[in-house]
Amino acid sequence: MISFEHRVLSEYKLKTSKIDTLSNSIMAHRDPKGQEAKEASDFLDVLINETDSFYDKHSDILSNNGKRPHPRSHLSESKQWNENVEKFYEKNPYRRRKN
User: Fold this and answer.
1) Domains in the chain: how many in total?
2) All residues at 6 or more sequence positions from 9 whose CB lies less than 8 Å from its CB, including other chains
3) Cα separation of 13 and 35, whole Å?
């Protein structure tokens, strides 16, 4: 049986990958000033807002598992989230992301 925590982490991973895929598609579009790219950009804003609300709702689970808000997020950083992420990486140094 899959735990609720695992479901939240998997859902967040899917949401962030959708944002990355769409933003890369917009950047590589042949006509970045066209109507299609503008509508995709509007949809990207919708995805970002949805992901922000998801992170805000499940921030305890996500931050305790080393997940920060997406770099395109409109959320302001919380001191508690950063502390939780740093505690996670202190306990699990091999899981630190390579940036």
Assistant:
1) 1
2) 61, 62, 65, 67
3) 29
Tokens 């933003």, residue located: 23
Count helices and strands in the chain by DSSP H and E runs: 4, 0
How do residues 76-86 score in pLDDT, each as one tens digit?
888 888 898 88
Cβ 5 vs Cβ 61: under 8 Å:
yes
pLDDT at 96 over 90: no
Give the other-Cβ count within 10 Å of 91's Cβ: 9
Alpha-carbon Rg for the chain, nearest whole angstrom, is: 16
CA distance 59 to 43: 23
State the residue range of the domain holding 37: 4-95
